[in-house]
Design goal:
The protein contains 3 helices and 6 strands; from the N terminus they run H-H-H-E-E-E-E-E-E. With 196 residues, it is α+β, with helices and mostly antiparallel strands. The N and C termini lie far apart (136 Å).
């Protein structure tokens, strides 16, 4: 019987241990439920935090979109401002051309008027070139320069001395740069070596 008693005692201890474990689990669950009942704000505070974070993200997106729009407007305004300064310079040249044309219409037969007209046109050209230079628009030097495909566009070739081969012979249309960039290539004729 001693074996049965020992076995019963052992079984009883196992049951007690299992019961204690179940009781502990129940207590933990009850404490969790009680804490949730006592602190319902914990769950709400997480929801509130999530809502605040979402709102902050939306605000940040809206701010960045507003900044992008403002920068685009400022860029457009700056472009218009720069163009307006350039346009004012060019308009004064146009005014002078109109005055020159009007002055020659009255005196078409007078040779002195024609020479004065020619001088006026030359002055207007100088004024125009000066206005362009203010905005970093410069004429490309071409005559007797070596042909450069980055700055020149060859329109034809003419025979020349061997020493002149590859140099520019004639300018058909001037080219211009704006800053360091090519605005318009110069249209030129180029010397080629004589055939023997």
């Amino acid at each position: 019987m001693a074996k049965k008693d020992k076995k019963n005692e052992k079984d009883k201890k196992n049951l007690d241990t299992q019961k204690t474990k179940v009781d502990q689990d129940e207590m933990i669950n009850e404490n969790t439920i009680n804490n949730e009942k006592e602190n319902p704000n914990d769950e709400k505070s997480n929801e509130e935090k999530l809502a605040e974070a979402q709102e902050q993200v939306l605000r940040t997106l809206a701010d960045s979109e507003n900044l992008r729009r403002r920068l685009e407007r400022e860029k457009e305004d700056l472009g218009n401002y720069i163009i307006s300064n350039f346009a004012k310079e060019i308009l004064s040249v146009v005014d002078n051309l109109q005055r020159a044309i009007k002055s020659i219409e009255d005196k078409k037969e007078d040779e002195k008027a024609l020479s004065t007209f020619a001088e006026g046109i030359e002055l207007i050209e100088k004024q125009l070139i000066s206005s362009l230079e203010k905005f970093k628009i410069n004429k490309i030097n071409t005559i007797n320069e070596p042909f450069n495909p980055n700055l020149h566009q060859a329109m034809f070739e003419v025979e020349g001395k061997d020493s002149e081969s590859g140099n520019i012979s004639e300018v058909i249309q001037d080219g211009y740069t704006i800053g360091d960039r090519l605005l318009r290539p110069a249209m030129v004729g180029v010397y080629k070596s004589k055939k023997s």
